[in-house]
């Protein structure tokens, strides 16, 4: 809480003076500590894919969104940054496990699959090694993945964020120029509470929240065609009207979404004609409309 926002608790001139000095010192600390936001060289739009909780389908959404964007005329101009340094999933989902090479300026070159430039902490540490890092190390890792990688030229960089609203999320949000965030949530209250916190965090650091992806809300039986709303049907819809942000897409649970992700062949690549893949294209379409490229870089 900023002291300036609290009425001075003391009336004598001497104590008032001490209070004013304290306020000024705190303001100096607060303003002095705000890092400067810098763009990532050669990248037109940066999109964060975030969630309040783990396991809600954030990485699956980030991967399929990136590939769908590539398919919409941004060939070789989409990147995917796995900022989930604690539990990187992008190496598995994108079927990549090489180590990135360095160029002559000691800058890492992203790995490429399905036409997407990818970078992940998972390429830099051994598989199955748990990452037990503390705040400052996490922030430094995030800086490496954003600044020490030759990302450009890119139309879109999709960032798979770690779940929650901790150091890594703040570091990223406060140090790079971000064009918009997408919140992925399942429809239960317990997930939506954290999705709300995530939205508030982005608003505090002046990042526009483009909308919500409601994931795994329903399941349709492949035998009888009965559709079951597994969690709550209206969960994200209520959050959307409460926070005045749109639902960009509602993605049901589908076995093939999971299987394709686990096998490293995301559904947008392996079953582009499926209903599920079409939903990710719908999401990519909304993202393009909400974040049009600078006029010189419109897809041909
Ligand atoms: P998070 O990044 O939020 O931790 P993941 O994207 O890793 O979540 O997804 C968690 C698990 O749920 C993965 O096994 C993934 O394949 C699966 N999954 C995600 N979305 C769906 C969906 N719509 N239908 C079926 N499985 C899904």
Give a quick precis of the structure.
With 300 residues, the protein is of the alpha/beta class.
Task: Domain count, please report it.
Answer: 1
What composes the largest sheet? Answer: 9 strands, mixed
* CATH homologous superfamily title: P-loop containing nucleotide triphosphate hydrolases
* Radius of gyration over C-alpha positions, nearest whole angstrom: 21 Å
- The fraction of residues assigned to DSSP E strands is 15-25%
Sum up the overall morphology in one term.
Answer: globular
Q: Can you name the CATH architecture?
A: 3-Layer(aba) Sandwich
Computed structural class:
alpha/beta
| Estimated helix fraction | 25-40%
CATH topology value = Rossmann fold
* Arithmetic mean of pLDDT: 85
Catalogue the unreliable spans: none
Q: For the record, give the distance between the C-alpha atoms at the N and C termini, rounded to a whole number.
A: 50 Å
Explain what the structure shows.
With about 300 residues, the chain is of the alpha/beta class. The protein has one domain (about 40-295): P-loop containing nucleotide triphosphate hydrolases (Rossmann fold, 3-Layer(aba) Sandwich), CATH 3.40.50.300. The protein contains 10 helices and 9 strands. It has helices at about 15-35, 60-70, 90-95, 135-145, 165-175, 190-205, 235-245, 255-260, 265-270, 275-290; strands at about 45-50, 80, 110-115, 115-120, 155-160, 180-185, 210-220, 225-230, 245-255. Strands 1, 2, 3, 4, 5, 6, 7, 8 and 9 form a 9-stranded mixed beta sheet that branches. A hairpin with a 6-residue loop joins strand 7 and strand 8. Helix 4 packs parallel to helix 5. It is globular, with a radius of gyration of 21 Å.
